[in-house]
Design a protein that fits this description.
SH3 type barrels; single chain; 9 strands; alpha+beta; two-stranded antiparallel sheet
């Protein structure tokens, strides 16, 4: 009786792996509060609406609050992107979804982490489901 459950679990994992799309890297390094980027670096307020161009990014609306988890370290001529998730009772459907957004569309309002670590990004940082 256990085997059908194991088979279903394996098929489900394979199904998810097949549908993941590897996207171009946005940067080679990122700044985080810890090695896993699990601590919130700061809180920011959205200054302008931002429509996500692909699944790596999140949509933002002016006035929303965003938890910032990492900041991509730009290379020369590259844009600066941060990753985070929306914090708002009005947008519960977006809470917990982490994605990238341009640093220029937000204003950092409160810093939580002064000590940060710079770590290399990996391909999994830029996968789309």
């Amino acid at each position: 009786m256990r085997y059908p459950l194991v088979i279903l679990l394996c098929v489900g994992l394979l199904h998810q792996a097949v549908w993941a799309i590897r996207m171009d890297k946005l940067a080679d390094n990122k700044t985080c509060g810890d090695a896993e980027c699990s601590y919130v670096l700061s809180m920011a307020t959205v200054l302008d609406d931002f429509i996500a161009p692909d699944c790596r990014f999140i949509n933002l609306r002016r006035g929303q609050m965003v938890y910032v988890y990492s900041k991509l370290t730009p290379e020369e001529g590259a844009g600066v992107f941060w990753s985070g998730s929306v914090y708002s009772e009005r947008y519960v459907d977006q809470m917990g979804i982490i994605g990238y957004f341009p640093a220029t569309v937000v204003k950092e309002t409160q810093k939580f982490m002064e000590d940060t670590v710079k770590i290399p990004t990996t391909d999994t940082d830029f996968y789309c489901d």
